[in-house]
Amino acid sequence: MKRPSALVPVIAGFSVMLILMAAVTAIGVTYIRILSEQLTAIVAERNEKAELATAMRAMHEARYQALMLASHMGDPFLRDEEIMRFSRLAREFIQAREKFLALPLDEDELALWSRIRSEVGEVERNADQAVGLLQDDRLGEARHLIQQALLPVQETMMAQWARLVAMQRAKNQAAMDEARRASDKARQLTVSLSAGALVVGLVIAVFVIRLSRRLEAELFEEKERAQVTLHAIGDAVLRFDDKRLIRYLNPVAEQLLGTTAPAAMGQSMEAIMHLFNKHDRRALTHEIVASTLDGKPTSLPNATALLSASGLEYEVEGTCAPIHTPSGEIMGGVMVMRDVTEDREVHRQLLWQADHDSLTGLMNRHAFEAHLARTLTSKRSADFPMSILYIDLDHFKPVNDTAGHVAGDELLRRIASLMQDRLRDTDILARMDGDEFAIVLHACPDDMAERIARDIKDSIGGFNFQWGGKTFQVGASIGVVHVPPHGSTLDECLAAADAACYNAKQNGRATVMVHHHERGTS
What we know:
By secondary structure, the protein is α+β, with helices and mostly antiparallel strands.
């Protein structure tokens, strides 16, 4: 009788183990996929809904608080800041609302959203009326409208927002419970089948050690790639090897670089990606890639720009990090970056608007006072003569009353341009308030400052403003203050300039009044 081969039980055991492992893998993958989809739904949808609902609720509360605060502010500038904050919150609410509505909503959420939307409309109508009253300086009427008309619908709307947030939290909890049950079931099945596979696997472990090691290495590498790709969603992602050759581009990177992934594959980073310093045009790609391959995660400098293959330049920000093998060696790197051109341009515009008058484009009062304060405390302030001109337009109100505020605004713009043309590049002209302006004449002798003041007065007095078939003329009362070289403060200088302008106005005609300011006087 033929003796059975010793390989039979090994093959049989190995086959059983493979079957059990296949079953474990299939069942585990199935339930893990279900669990992953549920968790993804929780993180990407439910949590996002709850966060957006909470954010929109907070924005409405903040908008109401901004109106309440503005209605109690006597200072029109501070009140305007709160109104601007109110408007900015409206834009942020619209963005959050669009993101919320872009998500899949069930019937309960749509029904509740419909009720909220109708109440939001009522709140916005009352809020717009309140803003109009605040802009007209009718604070009492604004406060009455807020308390009597806006507050009730605000409270009703906030209750609906609270219901929406609570609904999202309840749905999140239900999804978490379902995911937990799926996880428990997958764990039980996996443990049961793994126990059977383990018994057989112990007999033939020697045959699968090498296979296990290979699978472990492949899984580790795949995990690294998957994590990098996941973290780069929405941004440009480039992966390169230790020879600086590009191995992966995502669609966003293709768009920024102006090329395609197939065309870039195998090309060097320096040939495809042109990063440079936007101030001195110094190339940055080589040093960033070199630093990454040395094992140092690198953030792109603040002034980094990208030149695409199509010739477009983008301001970008991001990071470049090395990728390690299981043994710790560097196998390449990944760069994640995003286009911030528009964001930085908006930021620059906001910075400009914070220091400039929106009507004339001149420096505003806040920026003017900050500049004058710095000048008075600088070392150069004692080395050169300096004068301050304070200008108050005469007969400006009749232009507003007769031709309207549009005509008045246009007149202010033209007078601002007229004065700017008569100043040196080093002089500072600012609009202080309404029809008042101020000038700092740096390194300007007293007699020259007085000639400039008279020239400005004569130019304004001789300016004929045509509007609606009518001709208007305005004058200017100008106070001139010669600032002493030591010891003057900002408040003293401004008080002296204002007083000189007031005395000039009391003369009954447009004139120039010179005030020799001394320390401690105003």
